[in-house]
From TrEMBL:
Species this protein is from: Crocodylus porosus (Saltwater crocodile)
Gene3D superfamilies reported in the protein's UniProt record: Ribonuclease Inhibitor
Pfam families found in the cross-reference section: LRR_6
Name of the protein: Leucine rich repeat containing 31
Ranges for region Disordered: 1-27, 62-104
UniProt feature, compositional bias: Basic and acidic residues: 65-95
Xref: InterPro entries: Leu-rich_rpt, LRC31, LRR_dom_sf
Gene that encodes the chain: LRRC31
Length: 591
């Protein structure tokens, strides 16, 4: 409809401006009363303000700003005659010279039509349009959708973020989109997680990197076909690239992909975050990567979780640490062949004075490593989070690394799960915790010695006024341990606790649970509680069940209760049904 109006009226407008014929004047009068003339006047007013040097947002941005979240955009009723949703400009502006009018009409018309298409496309996917952020994560997009999106990019010149993650039907169809990325040259973030990218997709994206020069974040994680083909992309990254975040998690990267990554570290000097996690073969080329890390001295996060790092790889990393003085997060977890590698790298590790997060869980740390780490970790004065889980030598070592945590006053998260703690090492940890006033997360799960000895931690828990998460799963807790927790609750020492995990403690008798639930309501900020039994167990709920439901009614923040393998009697089942009907909150019972 719009094109037919355009072709019929514009020629008449041109004649009226070059002739004084009365007939032309009559046609012009008719034109001024037409709906189309009203629309053209709106466009003239917008251009006039630009021509006079006044600041005016583009019509695309104005469209998104003027949209009413609850219904129609401004002035939509007035413009229904041309069947387009557009913003209304309320400001009176002088007209542009007639010579400029016709030359800009078509482009403005296309923009108005294009922004309407953007709105309809997003509405179809249940999303709201945003001029700077196109978030289509997990929208079940297909090839047709991607083709449609490609055609919309010319109408989104201010776009800074595109997220197409978890759309696994668009693999092999990205080329049309990458060919249009020059229309969004301001793009800063591109996320393509789990899109089943093919070699053609990777190559096309590589070609497009030159036309999105401001790109700062590139996330290609969980695309297994990238393995062995990463060079199709990396060889296109130019010197001076502004990329700050690069993530290729679980992409089946091969050793040669590691070599490709090493080469681009020479050109992405602004890199802040590098995440290569869950790529087991990358460890073979870690030496090459480590040698080039000196070129990204501003790196703040290095994630090598489950990367097949071995002793020699860790030693190469150790040499690189001396250049990474701004490093704040280091994840070396789940590299089981890393044992005994800390002996030669510890000195450089100590130079990371700004390190805030250190994750060494499941690294098969040896006694020799512990001897070194006992000296080094206390020197990391900025450390806030420490994860040493699943390293059984930690609990049995005579060096007592845990006792030296007292020298890390900023520590707020200590995860020591499944470390075979003995009473002596647990006592060392409890004593160190007295010097950790900012402690927020404490995980002691799967350490059997905690059961019957929780009293050792009593004073530390009294001082830990900020604690939010306490995990004591599978700790062989006894009734006395739960009575101690009840005492802490009753005296207000766990007032900020949000998550409490007491699962897999089948050793607690019904009397212990009854004592615990009697004071549970004191935890006003608690949202999650897990008291599930072991998978091999099955047990009837005791008389304490009524106390539990009564307590939950007085806990405004509570949302999740884990009670797997507890068996409810008929009356208890009715109590639960009545609770669900009567409660004004939605509490999820997992049983």
């Amino acid at each position: 409809m719009f094109k037919s109006c355009d072709s019929a009226i514009i020629p008449k407008m041109e004649r009226s401006e070059t002739s004084q014929d009365p007939q032309n004047g009559y046609e012009e009068d008719l034109l001024k009363r037409s709906p189309f003339h009203l629309f053209m006047t709106q466009i003239q007013r917008i251009k006039s303000s630009v021509g006079k040097g006044k600041h005016q947002h583009s019509s695309v941005i104005q469209f998104f700003r003027d949209l009413d979240p609850g219904g129609k955009s401004k002035g939509e009723t007035e413009r229904e005659e041309i069947d387009l949703s557009r913003p209304d400009n309320q400001n009176e502006k002088p007209d542009l010279p007639a010579s400029d009018e016709v030359s800009h009409n078509i482009s403005e018309t296309d923009l108005v039509s294009g922004k309407w298409k953007v709105k309809q496309f997003m509405k179809k996917l249940g999303k709201k349009p945003n001029s700077k952020n196109m978030d289509l994560n997990n929208c079940a997009l297909n090839e047709t959708d991607l083709t449609e999106l490609s055609g919309l990019l010319p109408f989104l010149p201010e776009l800074e973020e595109i997220n197409l993650s978890w759309n696994d039907f668009i693999g092999g169809t990205l080329k049309p989109l990458t060919l249009q990325l020059h229309h969004v040259s301001k793009l800063k973030s591109l996320r393509l997680n789990n899109c089943r990218m093919t070699a053609e997709d990777i190559a096309s994206l590589g070609e497009a990197l030159e036309i999105i020069p401001f790109l700062e974040e590139l996330d290609l994680s969980w695309n297994s076909n990238i393995g062995g083909k990463l060079s199709l992309l990396t060889k296109k990254i130019q010197k001076g690239s502004k990329i700050k975040i690069l993530k290729v998690i679980d992409c089946n990267l091969a050793a040669k992909d590691g070599e490709s990554l090493a080469q681009i570290l020479n050109v992405i000097h602004h890199l802040k975050v590098l995440d290569l996690s869950i790529n087991q073969k990358i460890g073979c080329s870690l030496k090459s990567i480590a040698q080039e890390l000196k070129n990204v001295s501003g790196l703040e996060e290095l994630h090598l979780h489950m990367c097949g790092v071995k002793k020699d790889g860790l030693q190469s990393l150790g040499t690189a640490f001396q250049y990474l003085l701004e490093l704040r997060k280091l994840d070396l977890s789940c590299n089981k062949e890393i044992g005994r590698g800390f002996e030669d790298s510890a000195a450089h590790l100590a130079s990371l004075k700004d390190l805030e997060v250190l994750d060494l869980h499941q690294c098969c740390i040896t006694e020799e490593d512990l001897a070194v780490l006992t000296q080094v970790i206390p020197l990391l004065s900025s450390l806030q989070e420490l994860n040493l889980s699943s390293n059984k030598n930690i609990g049995m070592s005579s060096d007592h690394l845990l006792s030296r945590l007292r020298f890390l006053p900023k520590l707020n998260s200590v995860i020591i799960s499944n470390c075979s703690l003995q009473k002596a090492s647990f006592a060392s940890l409890a004593e160190a915790a007295l010097h950790l006033p900012d402690l927020e997360i404490l995980d002691l799960s799967w350490n059997k010695c905690v059961g019957g000895n929780l009293k050792l931690l009593l004073e530390a828990l009294k001082l830990a006024t900020e604690i939010r998460v306490l995990i004591l799963s599978s700790c062989n807790l006894a009734a006395g341990d739960l009575a101690l927790l009840a005492l802490l609750m009753r005296t207000g020492h766990l007032a900020k606790l949000q998550k409490l995990d007491l699962s897999y403690n089948d050793t607690v008798c019904d009397e212990g649970w009854a004592t615990f639930y009697q004071d549970l309501a004191e935890l006003k900020e608690l949202s999650e509680l897990d008291v599930s039994l072991r998978p091999s167990s099955c047990r009837d709920c005791g008389m304490w069940f009524g106390k539990l439901l009564t307590a939950l009614r007085e806990m405004p923040a509570f949302t999740d209760l884990g009670m797997q393998r507890w068996v409810f009697s008929g009356p208890q089942q009715k109590q639960l049904e009545y609770f669900n009907q009567d409660s004004t909150r939605n509490v999820r019972f997992d049983y």
